[in-house]
TrEMBL record:
Main location: cytoplasm
Phosphofructokinase domain residues: 54-359
InterPro entries per record: ATP_PFK (IPR022953), PFKA (IPR050929), Phosphofructokinase_dom (IPR000023), PKF_sf (IPR035966), PyroP-dep_PFK_TP0108 (IPR012004)
Top-level enzyme category: transferase
Marked site: Important for substrate specificity: G151
Residue numbers annotated as active site: D180 (proton acceptor)
UniProt key word Kinase: yes
Cofactors required: Mg(2+)
Family as reported in the entry's similarity comment: Belongs to the phosphofructokinase type A (PFKA) family. PPi-dependent PFK group II subfamily. Atypical ATP-dependent clade 'X' sub-subfamily.
Biased amino acid composition, Polar residues: 435-455
Protein known as: ATP-dependent 6-phosphofructokinase
Function field: Catalyzes the phosphorylation of D-fructose 6-phosphate to fructose 1,6-bisphosphate by ATP, the first committing step of glycolysis.
Length: 455
């Protein structure tokens, strides 16, 4: 029943049939396409306030805004739904079974949004579905809020499936987090704007250093394991960058049209230049000169070789061989851009995401929450975990970057053909997991009765 919903949100109920389309740019005769449930408070909720026992966990790398999401989950549950039984899970997934659960209240989280990091702690690895769900069951938790990136959302999906298998009345709400902005479907992840803003400071320093030297080069490495969004947006925002290298756009060093030739040309024209490189860029070309170690982190993510350092040496060697005077300063602000508190825009975004997650969980749904074309929606887990959001080098945004920096695209016809083929494949919607069509629908009105999430 909806009796526990407070007066303040009653007048803003979302119609159960409201949907958010995945694609807004369509053609006249396009099919209707995939739609998601619109997020927001429902007239009918599935939990009484005093019945709710909620927990919150944060996993993966840091991201500006984590504490804001945690704060707003706690305050939103307490203020909008009168829920006061809320626990923090410490240090990521493993905290479900290896640490004490910590009771949290609006008072204890009151000021945390002003701090970077996560007050709950975070970690990689340690996802043991059975142990996690055993603990959820034993402790009588019935709402699980999981904040984390692509790996975390995969873990949330596993927890959700196990909960379904056991027939528990537990809602699982994923709040997507990653400064790499690599989570599929959603417009952008929280903390991304803050990270791009902070990256400006590094780029400015690189520019100052480059301008103050004879043939000065400032090289900045930014995060972005598989997706170069931070590098692309930080470059577009700055206007001081002459070259941006991202994992999605292959480049080569030597010969006609290569990076070294471009650097040389720019120095001759301008006497200085700034290069921004995403950490995942050029891994294939470094691997040719340094044997790849194939080391993985605790979550199974490949540890990357340092493209910034490698480029610095290559560029230095090139100019030495040409007997051309130059100076290169390498700046690696990696952890500085993600360890900050979120900016004002991200704080608002985090608040809305937390509220949307609460409304969905109170209605009994399990989902990843996210903004899709400017509207908040409940997205089935498998949709966000089956692909990764990447910069499309065949798209207009990358073209805008190329025209802003005036750099060559470094692409060969083969690279363009491969990118087009990849676009074609990613535009094909992923099929729901065959073995369990019900799970793929992803929304539970209650733990036992499922309703179709995509409309
Ligand atoms: N396929 C998977 N199934 C179950 N759990 C997973 C899976 N992939 C990752 N996880 C778990 O999710 C947690 C976070 O994963 P990971 O370290 O890859 O970070 P992430 O959530 O992708 O965030 P980010 O990449 O932005 O730092 C880890 O505890 C990891 O064990
Ligand atoms: O050193 P850590 O904590 O594993 O984090 C590094 C990784 O985290 C990310 O920022 C993703 O959150 C990647 O860009 C980066 O490779
Ligand atoms: Mg990840």
């Amino acid at each position: 029943t909806g009796t526990s919903v407070l007066i303040c949100i009653r007048q803003y109920f979302v119609d159960e049939d409201d949907t958010v389309p995945q694609k807004v740019v369509v053609q006249k005769n396009s099919r209707r396409g995939v739609h998601f449930r619109r997020a927001g408070p429902r007239q009918r909720v599935n939990f009484e306030s005093d019945e709710v026992k909620a927990c919150i966990v944060s996993c993966g790398g840091l991201c500006p805004g984590l504490n804001t999401v945690i704060r707003e989950l706690v305050c939103g549950l307490a203020h909008m739904y009168n829920v006061n039984n809320i626990f923090g899970i410490q240090n990521g997934y493993k905290g479900f079974y290896s640490s004490n659960y910590v009771a949290i209240t609006p008072k204890t989280v009151n000021d945390i949004h002003k701090r970077g990091g996560t007050v709950l702690g975070t970690s990689r690895g340690g996802h043991d579905t059975k142990k996690i769900v055993d603990n959820i069951q034993d402790r009588g938790i019935n709402q699980v809020y999981i904040i984390g990136g692509d790996g975390t959302q995969k873990g949330a999906y596993e927890i959700y499936k196990e909960i379904r298998k056991r027939g528990l009345k537990v809602a699982v709400a994923g709040v997507p987090k990653t400064i790499d902005n690599d989570i599929a479907i959603i417009d952008k992840s929280f903390g991304f704007d803050s990270a791009v803003e902070e990256a400006q400071r590094a780029i400015n320093s690189a520019h100052v250093e480059a301008c103050s030297a004879e043939n000065g080069i400032g090289l900045v490495k930014l995060m972005g394991r598989y997706s170069g969004f931070i590098a692309m947006y930080a470059t577009l925002a700055s206007r001081d960058v002459d070259c941006c290298l991202i994992p999605e756009s292959p480049f080569y060093m030597d010969g006609e049209g290569g990076l070294l030739q471009y650097v040389e040309r720019r120095l001759k024209e301008n006497k200085h230049m700034v290069i921004v490189v995403a950490e995942g860029a050029g891994q294939d070309i470094i691997a040719k000169s340094i044997p790849a170690s194939d080391q993985l982190d605790a979550s199974g993510n490949k540890l990357l070789l340092d493209i910034g350092l490698w480029l610095t040496h290559k560029i230095k060697d090139h100019f030495k061989s040409k007997k051309m005077e130059m100076t290169i300063k390498y700046i690696d602000p990696t952890y500085m851009i993600r360890a900050i508190p979120s900016n004002a825009a991200d704080n608002v975004y985090c608040t809305l995401l937390a509220h949307s997650a609460i409304h969905g969980a109170m209605a009994g749904y399990s989902f990843t929450v996210g903004m899709v074309n400017g509207r908040h929606a409940y997205i089935p887990f498998y949709r966000v975990t089956s692909t990764r959001n990447k910069v499309k080098i065949t798209d207009r945004m990358w073209a805008r970057l190329l025209s802003s920096t005036n750099q060559p695209s470094f692409l060969r016809q083969k690279d363009i053909d491969e990118a087009r083929e990849a676009d074609r494949l990613t535009n094909k919607p992923p099929l729901p997991p065959v073995a369990n069509q019900n799970v793929a629908k992803a929304f539970d009105q209650s733990a036992s009765a499922s309703s179709n999430g995509e409309i």
